[in-house]
Amino acid sequence: MASSGGNSPRSTTTIAAGLQASVSEGGDLGRLLDQRKRRRMESNRESARRSRMRKQMHLDELATAATRLTSENARLSARIAVMSRQLMAVEAENSVLRAQLMELSHQLESLDNIVRWVEPGSVPEPDRYGNSQEWNPVWQNQPIAAAAAFQDIFRY
Fold first, then answer.
1. What are the distances in angstroms from CA 70 to CA 18, 33, 74, 121, 138?
2. Which of 41, 64, 95, 116 is deepest in the core (most CB within 10 A)?
3. Would 119 be classed as within a structural domain?
């Protein structure tokens, strides 16, 4: 059969046949095959143990990351809630300030009209009906009722 010398790869049956020819009769061949089988089984067990350890380490890392991310999520949610309340407060304040701006703008416009009307030489020209185009106070075209009352008093 095949010789046991050489470095060429062989199938298990060829190796067993070669060993059978070179090993003496009896349990030597069986022991040699049992030793190889035991070594292979131990190697497989060790490899499986390492694989389980790697898997457990990976699961532990994932659990740690999940815990960290959950706490960070809670912290960010709380921060978002605080920022939302601050945003609502700022928007409310802006609304109040806009209303105040509108009111003050109207007051300033009214005061500017009064100043322009009161300044000497700045009285606007009346239109063809005698009304001022810029500012027309109600009392400008109204008769003074008190003057009539005084006339009645002095008649007696």
1. 63, 55, 6, 76, 71
2. 116
3. yes
| pLDDT tens for each residue of 69-119 | 999 999 999 999 999 999 999 999 999 999 999 999 999 999 888 888 777
pTM of the model: 0.44
Rounded-to-10 torsion of CA 81, 82, 83, 87: 100
- Cβ-based neighbours of 131, under 8 Å, separated by 6 or more: 141
Burial 49-77, CB ≥16 within 10 A → b, else e? eeeeeeeeeeeeeeeeeeeeeeeeeeeee
Write the pLDDT tens digit of every residue in 50-78.
999 999 999 999 999 999 999 999 999 99
Q: Is the pLDDT of residue 136 over 70?
A: no
Number of domains within the chain: 1
**Residue type, position 5, single letter:** G
Asked if residue 97 is part of any domain, the answer here is yes
What is the extent of the structural domain holding 24? 12-125
